[in-house]
Amino acid sequence: VMEKIMQFSEVQIDVATEVLKSIAHPIRMKILCFLMDGEKNVSEIEHEFGSTISNISQHLTVLRKASIINRRKEANFMYYSLKDDAIYKLLDTIRHLYCQNA
């Protein structure tokens, strides 16, 4: 008989699944790792990855809708940052487990 060590509610499962699905894309993962260093604007993100603003914006929208990142407008610039410490810890764990010399 397997003993249940930890039990998750349906809501917790849904949230965790949504977060994992949303970060499971190479560009989105790169954006999130870039944001681990702190808040960045769209131009900085675009410059870092050499993609179009349109493409970057689509990925940022996915991350924002999944409550993974925050968006802040200042003058004509949009700034993005990681939403909370839980996201930072998740990314830091992924980096620690899968990224050499990180």
Number of strands: 3
Q: Which strands sit side by side, in order, in the main sheet?
A: 1-3-2
- Give me the Rg, rounded: 15 Å
Gap from first CA to last CA:
40 Å
Low-confidence spans: pLDDT under 50, at least 5 residues? Answer: none
Query: What characteristic shape results from the CA principal axes?
Result: globular
Total helices: the number is 5
- Mean pLDDT across the residues is 90
Q: What's the SSE pattern?
A: HHEHHEEH
Strand content: 5-15%
Q: How does the helix and strand content classify structurally?
A: alpha+beta
**Helix proportion range:** 55-70%
In this structure, how is the largest beta sheet organized? 3 strands, antiparallel
Structural key phrases:
globular, 5 helices, three-stranded antiparallel sheet, alpha+beta, 58% helix, 102 residues
